[in-house]
Specification:
The chain is mainly α. 76% of the residues lie in helices and 0% in strands.
C-alpha cells in the first residue's frame, strides 16, 4: 500500500487492495497453507491502514468536522473490533476450524467499515477540507504506513498523543519479527 494522491484516494485504494486480499484467501482451498500467508499479508495491510488513519485522519476528523468526535469514536470502535479479530486469527493454521470463521467475520466487519467510510466519512471530508489539506493528509498517511506495526496490538493506544509516541517503536519491532520469522507481509 502507498499509492499517492489525496487521503481519500489513498485510503480508497487501500480498501480495494484489502478486498482483493480477502478474495485471494477465499479462492484457496479451505485448508491450504497459502491462506495463512495471505492472512498475514491481510493482517499487515489492515494494521498499517488502521494505524495511519488513527494517527492522522481521525484527529483531523475530530477537530474539523461537525460531529467529528462522534464519527472518529465510531471509526475507532470499528478498528478495535477488527484488531481483536486479527489478534484471534494470529497464529492459527489454515486448517484450524476457527480460521475460516474468523476470516468470514473479519471480512464482514471490514466491508461494513469500508462502506461507512466511503459513503459517509469521505464525502464529508471532500466537502469540508480544501484539496491541499486532503493532499497533506494523504502524504501523512503514506508516511505513517511505512513505519506502522504489521501485527495486531489491541492494547496499543489508538489516539494521540500516546499512539504517536509508541507506534514507531512497535512498528520497528514488528518488522524485525517479520524478517526473523520469514513472515510475508507484502507482495
Amino acid at each position: 500500500m502507498g499509492h499517492g494522491g489525496d487521503v481519500i484516494a489513498e485510503l480508497t485504494a487501500d480498501h480495494r487492495e484489502l478486498e482483493a486480499l480477502f478474495a485471494q484467501i477465499e479462492a484457496q482451498p479451505v485448508d491450504h497453507p497459502q491462506r495463512r500467508e495471505l492472512a498475514d499479508r491481510l493482517t499487515a495491510e489492515l494494521v498499517r491502514h488502521s494505524v495511519a488513519e488513527e494517527l492522522h485522519l481521525y484527529p483531523a476528523v475530530r477537530k474539523h468536522l461537525s460531529h467529528g468526535a462522534v464519527l472518529a469514536d465510531k471509526e475507532l470502535a470499528d478498528h478495535a473490533k477488527v484488531e481483536q479479530m486479527l489478534k484471534d486469527l494470529e497464529g492459527r493454521h489454515a486448517d484450524d476450524p476457527q480460521f475460516n470463521d474468523i476470516v468470514a467475520k473479519l471480512k464482514f466487519e471490514v466491508a461494513s467499515h469500508v462502506r461507512g467510510e466511503e459513503h459517509e466519512l469521505f464525502p464529508k471530508l471532500a466537502a469540508s477540507f480544501p484539496p491541499e489539506k486532503l493532499d497533506e493528509l494523504g502524504r501523512l498517511v503514506r508516511r505513517a504506513k511505512e513505519k506502522a506495526p504489521t501485527r495486531p496490538h489491541p492494547s496499543l493506544p489508538n489516539t494521540p498523543p500516546a499512539n504517536k509516541l509508541l507506534v514507531p517503536g512497535v512498528g520497528l519491532v514488528d518488522r524485525v519479527r517479520d524478517l526473523l520469522s520469514s513472515r510475508t507481509t507484502t507482495d
